Amino acid sequence: MSRTNIIAGNWKMYKTIAEAIGFAYEFVSGFEDGGREIVICAPFPQLAPLKRALSGSNVKLGAQNMHFEEAGAFTGEISPAMLAEIGVDYCVVGHSERRQYFAETDGTVNLKLKAALRHGIIPIVCVGEVLAERDGGRAFDVVKRQIEGGFAGVSPDDAARLVVAYEPVWAIGTGRTATPEQAEEMCAFIRKTVGEFCGADAADRIRVQYGGSVKPSNATELLSKEDIDGALVGGASLSPKDFKAIIGF
Ligand code: 13P
Predict the structure, then answer these.
(1) How many helices (H) and strands (E) does the chain have?
(2) What secondary structure does DSSP assign to 134-198, as a single string?
(3) Residue 48 C-alpha to ligand 1 middle, in angstroms?
(4) What is the pLDDT of residues 33-65, one digit of tens each?
(5) What is the best residue among 100, 172, 246 to mutate for testing ligand 1's pocket, by most ligand atoms within 8 Å of CB?
(6) Mean pLDDT of 78-102
């Protein structure tokens, strides 16, 4: 099965609207996707202006979070319908920063993932262990539990459309990347685990990214691994030059 590589930038809480538009014009000029799918996951206020700035290119747009309800009295939240109206293609779900600082659980990840799919938005579901869990030999158990909880009740067809990002928390923003072997081992384990819950076809088709200190100097080796179908890039996606270098041109 050949899976289209997907490289997504996660801007986190960086860039004003003016900065985002400036990035988009520089990024799309002379842009080539090299057969890969490219996504920019921006903060909420930047999404609509970015959609316009990226129109005419094949760069896709992603959000970084959403609520799972259709509408309601949830002050400060954004619904999947609101994102769909803007034309958002992807949404990061369950990033470790959301789990750590905003009390997201495998249960809320599951609800958000299903809500996104109902609105035609493809979730990028983040999983990954903290350092104590890796050092304690529990990384695989933790990731298995996150997949099991996050994917509960998801049909094999829907599972096949998802993107999973393996982001070991100890590698995020630390400059300490997982070795290509560690990343490949876990991404292959994620595929196998998806197969146990959702069947062999979903395991074959689902795309699994690696995230955590991906930069131009280590991207090629990570992306050459069999079970790594792309990258979720934080810091290095803020610079058009670095992000283009990671994509490979
Ligand atoms: P860095 O690439 O800055 O380590 O961030 C990774 C990440 O959290 C992407 O979602």
Answers:
(1) 12, 8
(2) HHTT-HHHHHHHHHHHHTTT--HHHHHH-EEEE--GGGSSSS-PPPHHHHHHHHHHHHHHHHHHH
(3) 23
(4) 888 999 999 999 999 999 999 998 999 999 999
(5) 172
(6) 98
Domain presence at residue 72: yes
Asked if residue 158 is part of any domain, the answer here is yes
Q: What is the model's pLDDT at position 37?
A: 97
- 233: tokens are 């890039």
CA distance 247 to 219: 8
Q: Does the residue 77 lie in any domain? A: yes
Indicate yes or no: pTM above 0.85.
Answer: yes
Domain count, the chain: 1
pLDDT digits over 171-211, tens only? 998 888 899 999 999 999 999 999 999 999 999 999 999 99
Q: Is the pLDDT at 249 greater than 80, yes or no?
A: no
Is residue 1 one of the residues assigned to a domain?
A: no
Q: How confident is the model at residue 141 (pLDDT cuts 50, 70, 90)?
A: very high
Q: Say whether 221 is catalytic.
A: no
Beta strands at 60-63 and 37-41: parallel, antiparallel or unpaired: parallel
Residues at CB less than 6 angstroms from ligand 1: 10, 95, 167, 172-173, 211-214, 232-236
**What is the domain-level CATH number for residue 100?**
3.20.20.70
**Is 95 designated active site?**
yes
Residue 1 has pLDDT above 70, yes or no: no
Distance CA 247, CA 148 (A): 31
Torsion of CA 51, 71, 124, 93, to 10 degrees: 120
